[in-house]
């Protein structure tokens, strides 16, 4: 039954991808991309990768869809007709695909018990993680402790993405008082529902942030969920109101503060005589030190991801308002 479900989901993924290729309506393409992300999340759930599924659903189907819709507000929803020959692009895609397939021929069989990951890496984490880190969620142990330096690099990449977007677009405030108010203030039902939902979304984001040690979650997912709550607020009540709640300059400082908070844990552990991001140095008990370190760095990740996602939305949203100004 599990294999049948995987095959059905893969077939739906393939059909969605093929439909995206032939569509000219970019709004429909964005919606199909969201469906594609949800299908991918279901596949990850079927593979017992719940943390990855959580991230795919929140980032791929959530924030990415909103940002692509913001891009459509700047570019238009209809793809321009390409009069050039498509033979060369098709040839490049075929050659690249063939090279990728050829590269997989040397890979060990999927799921085989003699694969190196099952012989060395996985047993090491399964057997030693409870003793060395002491967290029930082994995924958090790997990402935040064993691969803490890699996760710091990923956080820096997210921060760099915000710098790139803000450098290209920036956040433009309303300059003309005659410009109509943004948002959906005339929809009273929607405003009432948003007021009820937004606090619950923020509460759920806090749960995901501080429950990542025990179940699926962590800073990346929590930051995206919290940003989605404020994006919903901006969509319903307008960007000017959102600017009053959280100013763009404050978000930029938050994004940098999260990265600095993460890196400061490593510097503090070095000052205590350990290695960079050696959480054992944070307390007399190594297990307690691991807990403290993971909580702090996950908080840094959550702050940075939240600030970056909301800053990027501010940039796209403010540009769209300026373009659509009468």
From TrEMBL:
Membrane-spanning parts: 6-22, 29-47, 53-75, 87-105, 152-171, 192-210, 222-243, 250-271, 291-316
Record InterPro entries: CPA3_antiporter_subunitB, MnhB, MrpA_C/MbhD, MrpA_C/MbhE
Membrane topology type: Multi-pass membrane protein
Cellular component annotations (GO), alphabetically ordered: plasma membrane
Keyword Chaperone: no
Organism domain of life: Bacteria
Residue ranges occupied by any MrpA C-terminal/MbhD domain in the UniProt entry: 11-76
Pfam families cross-referenced by the UniProt entry: MbhD, MbhE, MnhB
Limits of the MrpA C-terminal/MbhE domain: 115-171
Cell compartment(s), UniProt: Cell membrane
The entry's keywords: Cell membrane, Membrane, Transmembrane, Transmembrane helix
Domain Na+/H+ antiporter MnhB subunit-related protein, chain residue ranges per copy: 189-310
Similarity annotation: Belongs to the CPA3 antiporters (TC 2.A.63) subunit B family.
Protein known as: Cation:proton antiporter
Organism field: Saccharobesus litoralis
Lineage: Bacteria, Pseudomonadati, Pseudomonadota, Gammaproteobacteria, Alteromonadales
């Amino acid at each position: 039954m599990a294999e049948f479900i995987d095959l059905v989901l893969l077939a739906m993924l393939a059909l969605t991808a093929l439909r995206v290729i032939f569509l000219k309506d970019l709004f429909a393409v964005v919606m199909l991309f969201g469906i594609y992300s949800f299908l991918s999340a279901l596949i990850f759930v079927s593979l017992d990768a719940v943390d990855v599924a959580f991230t795919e659903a929140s980032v791929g189907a959530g924030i990415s869809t909103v940002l692509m819709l913001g891009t459509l507000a700047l570019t238009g929803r209809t793809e321009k007709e390409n009069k050039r020959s498509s033979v060369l692009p098709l040839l490049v895609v075929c050659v690249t695909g063939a090279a990728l397939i050829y590269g997989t021929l040397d890979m060990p069989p999927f799921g085989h018990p003699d694969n190196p990951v099952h012989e060395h890496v996985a047993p090491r984490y399964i057997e030693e993680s409870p003793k060395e880190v002491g967290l029930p969620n082994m995924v958090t142990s790997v990402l935040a402790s064993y691969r803490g330096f890699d996760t710091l690099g990923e956080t820096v990449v997210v921060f760099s993405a915000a710098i790139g977007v803000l450098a290209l677009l920036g956040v433009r405030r309303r300059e003309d008082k005659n410009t109509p108010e943004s948002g959906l203030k005339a929809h009273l039902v929607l405003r009432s529902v948003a007021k009820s939902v937004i606090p619950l979304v923020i509460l759920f984001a806090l749960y995901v942030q501080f429950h990542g040690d025990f179940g699926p979650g962590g800073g990346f997912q929590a930051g995206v969920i919290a940003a989605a709550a404020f994006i919903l607020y901006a969509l319903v009540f307008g960007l000017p109101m959102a600017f009053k709640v959280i100013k763009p300059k404050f978000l930029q400082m938050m994004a940098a503060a999260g990265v600095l908070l993460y890196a400061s844990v490593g510097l503090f552990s070095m000052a205590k005589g350990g290695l960079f991001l050696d959480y054992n140095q944070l307390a007399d008990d190594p297990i307690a030190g691991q807990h403290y370190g993971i909580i702090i760095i996950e908080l840094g990740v959550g702050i940075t991801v939240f600030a970056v996602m909301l800053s990027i939305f501010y940039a796209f949203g403010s540009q769209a308002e300026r373009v659509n100004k009468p």
